[in-house]
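Agenda item 2: adenosine-5'-triphosphate complex prediction
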Amino acid sequence: MKPILECKGLSKKYNKSAYALHNLNLTLNHGQIIGLLGPNGSGKTTLIKLINDLLTPTEGTILIDGELPGVHSKNIVSYLPDHSYLDGSMKIQDLVSYFADFYEDFSKIRATSMLKDLHIDQTARLKTLSKGNQEKVALILVMSRDAKLYILDEPIGGVDPAARDYILHTILSNYNEHATILISTHLISDIENILDRVLFIQNGELVLNATVDDIRSEQKKSVDALFREVFKC
Ligand SMILES: Nc1ncnc2c1ncn2[C@@H]1O[C@H](COP(=O)(O)OP(=O)(O)OP(=O)(O)O)[C@@H](O)[C@H]1O
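Presented output:
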């Protein structure tokens, strides 16, 4: 089986500035949940935008399921951007129908059941919900597709800590286990129990690519503790 994501010598420079991403070599296989972790400005969103064909590499290549970013990758990648892109004036039930019309792989049943589990009123307009609840809706819509690769850029920043675990488990118990999820987040301790692998990125370079089990057994540390040590200011 082809890797779901392969980056070879991938670099990105915005204008004449320094590299935002430099010579990244990375292969991700199917069926894993991966944390993309790094300090502010380290290049996480740049990598995510490159994978989603929103930026063009300065050097190097990206293959998604063996193909360059384009029509095929848009069909198999479900992407949650780091800012809201949904029309706030729409009712939640209409957003669900809109996604169902737009994406062949969207499961209305799955979306409706997760919205119910999280007590979200589907007759409400998105903009009338709190920030955290708007984030939950956006995440549910993205996770209700039957994608091969889910890319979540800061998915639960506005969600209260008590609800985070519940949301992560509700959402993750509803996705296809052969798919891969790449999550960029600063909420490491909240999320590390669901991660199989972590990528640490610093100044645009990949400085660690390891399984969470290896970090715990070899370094005898949590991912959160290791992150704080590596990126100490
Ligand atoms: N549109 C842009 N034009 C110029 N430079 C940019 C642009 N977008 C990002 N950069 C720069 O690229 C570098 C990487 O930024 P990026 O947004 O990828 O980091 P990040 O790891 O996602 O950060 P954060 O955790 O703060 O969201 C930073 O130095 C940033 O200033």
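Discussion summary: Residues 5-230 form a domain with the Rossmann fold fold (CATH 3.40.50.300).
Owner for follow-up: CH.
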